[in-house]
Design brief:
The radius of gyration is 27 Å and the shape is globular. The protein starts with 8 loop residues before the first strand and ends with a helix. It is built from 18 helices and 14 strands. It has three domains: 191 residues, Lambda Exonuclease, Chain A, CATH 3.90.320; 49 residues; 212 residues, Ribonuclease H-like superfamily/Ribonuclease H (Nucleotidyltransferase, domain 5), CATH 3.30.420.10. Helix 13 packs antiparallel against helix 14. With 493 residues, the chain is of the alpha/beta class.
Length: 493
């Protein structure tokens, strides 16, 4: 056993330990092994702060207990002072009990008791995660001598449609979780005790498993023993990877062939033998469904925005801010290109769709990669701008999906790793092209960059982001062009 003193626990650490004791141990004693959070995770954190700030409007006039540059004891003293002054609403109140520290989003005075509110950016109550979160707060606050009447989760109402200014009382739903939280109290104490015992010893031998998440700060450390090309490299969920891992099977070449179905055998064979699988008949049928003029379309959207940005939009609704459009008028015509990108501080939707409708002829065949996404965006635009509905629906009717041959495994290549994402397909079919060297490499990064540009007042930053966004989205439709050319060449070979 280690001689370390038992450290404090916080709400965040408690939740981390519930998911993975090893992650909690590493967080306490080996922070040097942490990886930086992804841009998408950072954007999610930021949206959480915005939701918390907005929810405070449901309980106005409160006093915030700051945390930056303040010790836990200083935060506890400030909280105690506000409660003694009978402050009716306190934001980020701090409490400690049995060496466990928590901060609450909103604490509201009710007679001699208090109501506890935990604000979440989600659109529903997660019975496991949210109740544990609220439960440990209740445990600590009650243990510190404060009487709690009711405990609530405040979450985003995904049915809210913005009409004019934000109506905060409609943006949120308040769910009373008191009874469930009370039922959870006995196990909270047991889990806290177990975590302290674990932290006083050596690092748990927790192996990788279903609890692992790509966003875990210790993912790289815990997975370092897994070879680069392994059963986990296959993107498809059709292989029960952990079932094989728990049997000691990690390398693709060690998978027992007799246990694999035809698709799994294809994955393994492609890897082991550098094989390429082509269903020429199906690819031919797909290509024959295309016609000229042929337009290649791709949208970029923001989607991690809980507070609707524009009139008629809903929380977390995908809002298009950019498109790229390549086209070929016939088999012999040169490739042409056009694009649109919204301006900072303005609603891009009307300008975007009106420009797009001017550029795509009503009889054009429109090729996209993943028609579910592009059709959803176009349907939303038709709802927002019904005067253009007929023209938009004609585009929708003329859409063809370049993803189909790869989704249906009519073409498969070792470097696809079970995926049919364009980010895999492009470098597999057109090795000289790819996203790795670009400033923006995926849709999440594009959405985050647009939000930074949208609120920026720095001309240099705006221009830098604008160039990066245009370059990224243009590559998406140029990738469609090159992948189509590769499919066409396969049939000629």
């Amino acid at each position: 056993m280690s001689n370390r003193g038992i450290p404090y626990l916080s709400k965040r650490l408690f939740l981390l330990g519930l998911n993975c004791p090893k992650a909690l141990y590493l967080e306490k004693y080996h922070k040097e092994l942490k990886e930086d959070p992804s841009d998408e995770l950072e954007a999610l954190f930021q949206s959480g702060f915005e939701v918390d700030e907005m929810a405070r409007q449901l309980f106005p006039g409160g006093v915030e207990i700051p945390y930056e540059d303040l010790s836990f004891d200083e935060q506890l003293d400030l909280t105690s002072g506000e409660m003694k002054r009978r402050t009716p609403v306190i934001y980020q109140a701090a409490f400690s009990f049995e060496n466990t520290f928590v901060k609450t989003d909103i604490l509201k005075k009710k007679g001699k008791k208090w109501d506890l509110y935990e604000v979440k950016g989600s659109t529903s109550v997660n019975d496991e995660l949210h109740i544990n979160d609220l439960g440990v707060q209740y445990y600590v606050i009650k243990g510190s001598g404060i009487q709690i009447d009711r405990a609530y989760i405040v979450h985003v109402n995904n049915e809210y449609v913005r009409q004019g200014g934000i109506e905060v009382e409609k943006l949120f739903r308040i769910v009373d979780c008191t009874e469930t939280v009370l039922e959870r109290q006995g196990s909270i104490k047991e889990e806290l005790t177990a975590m302290r015992k674990m932290l006083s010893g050596s690092m748990p031998e927790t192996d990788i498993g279903e609890q692992c998440d790509d966003d875990c700060a210790f993912y790289g450390y815990c997975w370092q023993h897994v070879p680069e090309n392994s059963i986990f490299s296959i993107e498809s969920k059709w292989i029960d990877k952990f079932a094989y891992y728990n049997r000691g099977i990690v390398r693709l070449e060690d998978l027992p062939e007799q246990e694999l179905d035809d698709l799994q055998k294809m994955y393994v064979s492609a890897y082991l033998h550098h094989a390429e699988f082509t269903n020429r008949e199906s690819i031919g049928d797909f290509l024959s469904s295309l016609r000229y003029p042929l337009y290649f379309l791709d949208f970029e959207t923001v989607y991690l925005v809980p507070v609707p940005m524009f009139e008629g939009t809903m929380p977390y609704q995908q809002i298009p801010f950019q498109y790229s459009l390549h086209w070929l008028k016939n088999t012999d015509s040169p490739l042409e290109h056009s694009e649109y990108l919204g301006r900072p501080g303005t609603d891009p939707r009307r300008e975007l769709i009106e420009k797009l409708l001017l550029e795509i002829p009503s009889d054009a065949c429109v090729l996209v990669y993943d028609q579910t996404f592009e059709k959803r965006i176009l349907h939303s635009l038709a709802e927002w701008f019904p005067e253009h509905g007929d023209k938009i629906r004609r585009i929708i009717d003329n859409i063809r999906d370049l993803m189909v041959p790869f989704r249906d495994k009519d073409y498969y290549h070792r470097d696809l790793w079970g995926s049919y994402s364009l980010k895999y397909v492009l470098p597999a079919l057109v090795p000289e092209m790819g996203y790795d060297e670009m400033a923006i490499q995926n849709g999440g990064m594009a959405a985050d960059a647009y939000m930074r540009m949208y609120y920026s007042t720095d001309p240099q930053e705006i221009e830098r982001i604008r160039r990066a966004l245009l370059e990224y989205c243009k590559l998406d439709t140029l990738a469609e062009v090159k992948v189509l050319e590769r499919l066409q060449s396969l049939l000629k070979q």
